């Protein structure tokens, strides 16, 4: 890991793009060090490299394999057991604004504009100091079951996160994806009980994903919904897999899935329009997707491994902008959704 730290620090100093990432439950990480500061964009998804795309689909950037040194590193994954005192400061204005946004979402659902919408907020945290690579290391240690990354491009920005959500994994024609929704904080109890609201919002996501992939694949299978923990947060998850049809390009499949109702809503277009109009900030790469495009850099096989960009933050100087959102249905309660967003923000706050 020390070698990669030096490489990354040198790249930062030279203002050259790089990304470091570590797949869920993996013992090793990968670094892409771009050799120039060109901004590369994905055109038809046949490119090879590390992709990072915005929520609105407007920008899909690439750190191409052909312009980069690809470096493998092993991890020092000692699990952090010291639970720090969590100080939760409530910004009253943010709370009022977010609860008002959620209430507006519920009203739109009651007016039949859509069935589900995922509403989010951004929170600025002032930092006394910040070390990008040290923070990345802390994310790896704290969240070994997630996809952890840190991305730097002098012309695009600095982002890092630890996401529990796969968007799409494709190897030849075999694909996997997941439906993830419903959130509750870990209380240490071994029995996780879900309310109807959470079960319903996750079922919306599963139904949507299954119905979409059935248009482009055969032998579509899905598991029973089960509980899964990321950091100190539980979610409901269903695994979906199948065989893509020969004419189902990566571009087509990603276009059908992204953004799923796990981060946008149902139906997609109405809920997306509501988000863009009412959230009053630009999600940028939050709830976009990122990961390996057309190459598994561990096995050097042709496959793609993409994740939804959640539990993430953008760094601007000594300020961190944290992003978190909640699935809103007719049964949502604004104060509970606020609390959920606060719980999600702790994933990032714990490493700052
Ligand atoms: C939108 C986020 O998470 C998504 C929303 C969830 C929910 O509403 O319960 C759960 C997991 C994610 O699909 C986020 O973490 O910011």
From TrEMBL:
Enzyme class per UniProt: isomerase
Lineage: superkingdom: Bacteria
Domain Chorismate-utilising enzyme C-terminal: 97-344
Protein EC: 5.4.4.2
GO MF term (any one): isochorismate synthase activity
Pfam families per the UniProt record, alphabetical: Chorismate_bind
InterPro entries referenced in this protein's UniProt entry, alphabetically: ADC_synthase (IPR005801), Chorismate_C (IPR015890), IsoChor_synthase (IPR004561)
Keywords: Isomerase
Reaction equations catalysed: chorismate = isochorismate
Family from the record: Belongs to the isochorismate synthase family.
NCBIfam families for the chain: isochor_syn
The protein, known as: isochorismate synthase
Gene source species: Flavobacterium fryxellicola
């Amino acid at each position: 890991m020390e070698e990669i730290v030096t490489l990354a620090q040198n790249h930062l100093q030279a203002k050259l793009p790089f990304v470091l990432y570590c797949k869920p439950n993996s013992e090793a990480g990968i670094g892409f060090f771009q050799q120039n500061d060109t901004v590369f964009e994905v055109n038809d998804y046949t490119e090879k490299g590390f992709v990072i795309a915005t929520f609105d689909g407007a920008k899909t950037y690439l750190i191409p394999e052909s312009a980069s040194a690809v470096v493998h590193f092993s991890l020092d994954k000692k699990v952090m057991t010291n639970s720090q005192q969590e100080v939760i400061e409530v910004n009253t204005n943010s709370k009022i604004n977010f609860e008002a946004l959620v209430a507006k979402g519920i009203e739109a659902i009651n007016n039949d504009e859509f069935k589900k919408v995922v509403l989010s907020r951004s929170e600025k945290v002032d930092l006394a100091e910040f070390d990008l690579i040290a923070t990345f290391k802390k994310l790896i240690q704290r969240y070994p079951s997630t996809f952890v990354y840190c991305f730097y491009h002098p012309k695009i920005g600095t982002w890092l996160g630890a996401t529990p959500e796969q968007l799409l994994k494709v190897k030849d024609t075999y694909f996997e994806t997941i439906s993830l929704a419903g959130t509750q904080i870990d209380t240490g109890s071994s029995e996780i009980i879900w309310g109807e609201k959470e079960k319903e919002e996750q079922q919306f996501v599963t139904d949507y994903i299954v119905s979409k992939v059935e248009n482009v694949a055969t032998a579509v299978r899905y598991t029973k919904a089960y509980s899964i923990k990321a950091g100190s947060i539980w979610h409901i998850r269903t695994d979906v897999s199948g065989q893509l049809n020969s004419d189902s390009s990566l571009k087509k499949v990603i276009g059908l899935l992204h953004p799923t109702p796990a981060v946008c809503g149902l139906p997609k277009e109405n809920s997306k329009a509501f988000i863009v109009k009412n959230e009053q900030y630009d999600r940028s790469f939050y709830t976009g997707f990122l990961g390996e495009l057309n190459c598994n850099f561990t096995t050097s096989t042709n496959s793609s491994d993409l994740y939804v960009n959640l539990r993430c933050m953008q760094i601007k100087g000594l300020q961190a902008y944290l992003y978190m959102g909640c699935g809103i249905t007719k049964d949502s309660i604004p104060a509970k959704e606020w609390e959920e967003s606060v719980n999600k923000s702790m994933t990032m706050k714990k490493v700052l």
